[in-house]
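It is worth pausing here to work through a concrete case rather than discussing structure prediction in the abstract. The textbook approach is simple: state the sequence, then state the predicted structure, then interpret. We follow exactly that order.
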Amino acid sequence: MEKVIVSYKNKGDIMFCGDLNPRTSTPDDYIAQHSSKYLPLFKSYKPDNHIRYRKHCDETLDSRGKEIIDSCINNQMRIVNGRCVGDLPGQFTCFDTHGQSTVDYLITNETLFNQIRYFRVSEFISTFSDCHIKLSLEILAKYQLTESQSNNCHAAPKVKYKQFISSMLQKLDTLRVDNPNKYWKLLNDIPDSKKDSCSSQIDSETWANHFRSLHSAMDNTFYSRLKQFDKILSDKEKFSIFNDLDNQISIKENSDAIASIK
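Step two, the predicted structure:
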């Protein structure tokens, strides 16, 4: 990690995210009360900024964790876990047969650290990962559109709207775990636009007249056709069809049929 930081430090901002395999507990990753006010230092020397105290559910500090802490202090890198909205308690990021621990981190330099707006450790889902938990973040960024991208600027509002919705859903998901009461209160306060738009604009008298007209007297044409069908059916019933089945069943046939049943 130290070599990577030295290699890319002069090229821009640096960010590490993923399974770094340290257990860092809560020691400071910066020099506390660092100031150049009372000491003559180089003009190019930049003192560490005082940032939020880091919390951690994992209280273990191992040798790898000490190396990470020292590397952060030496290169002004900062651990985001346990400091940012979405993961203020410093949740565990790994669940295995040995227990639970925090070994997955987001580490940035101070410039990027101030641009992190949201960082979250998701809930553990055994079917999604073997033991590690998904990390997600929201960061402010400045970028310049290329010529081809600038031609699609009309689609930018839709993209921003989708990003806003995605961000709000992530924050709501976090709130559901951290503060269920506030989560449900927020959902109940959201207006239901569909419910408001479904109100009927037709008065009750109009509805009554409509259904009353459905049961009004039918015209004479319908009744005349109905009588015509009744007459046709009646005539067909009177018409005799002579075949073997029209003969009357004799007493002997009845006796033989009963005897065969026995």
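Step three, interpretation. The radius of gyration is 40 Å. The chain is about 40% helix and 10% strand.
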